[in-house]
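To: structure desk
From: M.T.
Subject: fold request, one chain
Message: Could you run this one when you get a chance? Sequence is below, nothing fancy, just the single chain.
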Amino acid sequence: MKYVPLIIANLFRKKLRTTLTIGSFAVALFLFGLLVVVRGAFNQGLDVAGADRLVIVNKTSIIQPLPASYADRLAQIPGIKDVTHQSWFGGVYQDEKNFFAQMAIDDATFWKMYPEFSLDPEQHKAFQADRQGVVVGQGIAKRFGWKIGDRVPIKGTIFPGTWEFNVRGIYHGTRPQDDETQFLFRSDYLEERRQFGKGTVGWYVVRIDNPDSAAQIVKTIDGMFANSPWETKTDTEKSFAAGFVKQMGNIQFLIMSIGGVVFFTLLLVTGNTMAIAVRERVRELAVLKAVGFSDTFVLVLVLFESIFVAIIGAGFGLAMIKLFTLNGDPTHGMLPYFRLPAWGIVFGLILASVVGLAAGILPALSASRLRVVDALRRI
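Reply: Done. Structure tokens follow.
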């Protein structure tokens, strides 16, 4: 620690150059943090997927419905202990830009299927007593300023007309990654007012006794409805969520490619900066050796300067992206989970330190091998 003032003094003798290098790290780590956040948003469904839940959709397409009568037949399959269904509503609130998920749910089974969604018992009773009642996530309630008792009109796009809902409850997730932007209303209200598709639902979700038997139960379900007018396609909830992620492209590859290019460029910039700094200080390094400091000391000194710049810049960049995520989802519903996890901060600091170390190795080796006589001869 006693040499820290020496490191700082060396770095800031060229304030502009050091500031720009720190700024390069800050921008790179801001971008890195943003990529981590976006990756987390796309993989949110994978992270919260229940290992004991299966999703059943129409084999033709997810937008095609399934008969409501399938619920009883699914419940009779050995290994299935809970069954619920949902239907996508697809309405518009005030403006088409106000996107959020609106789903008709079976209140009697939904909350048991998703215990990670916490709803006050009194609010749940109010929801059950009101056919036009709706339960909204606290994220969407905060976004639009909704509170208990508000009346919310939704213009139907799939189901025509203006649908009126009364906010009877606000749920919150028990885990940071849980989706708190859903708009959940009663399926009997949809069934009562819909002009087509009566007696159908969007998809089913079932809970199984043993996740290890998922493959066999999937085969049983799809076999039961094979060759019927409403054939099914069943997947684990995690596989179902992964399918949506794949539709957006290979996010993982994109992130790795962008991140790799950024950090390789940063490595070259920092390496060049440290090489120039060493060349400018040949006389001083020679004096250090002349008064008794070892080659190893000079090597470590230069390496620490490089790592110090990297960590300071990384700290600024990660702090900026953390502050940016505190404002919530900037896409207004497209990325409901928009957070920088703690592991992202730690990994970013480690990655910046490695880049700083790699960038400083060659200049540090050059400085450590410097002969005092040769160095003084250059001056």
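Reply (cont.): The mean pLDDT is 81. Let me know if you need anything else for the meeting.
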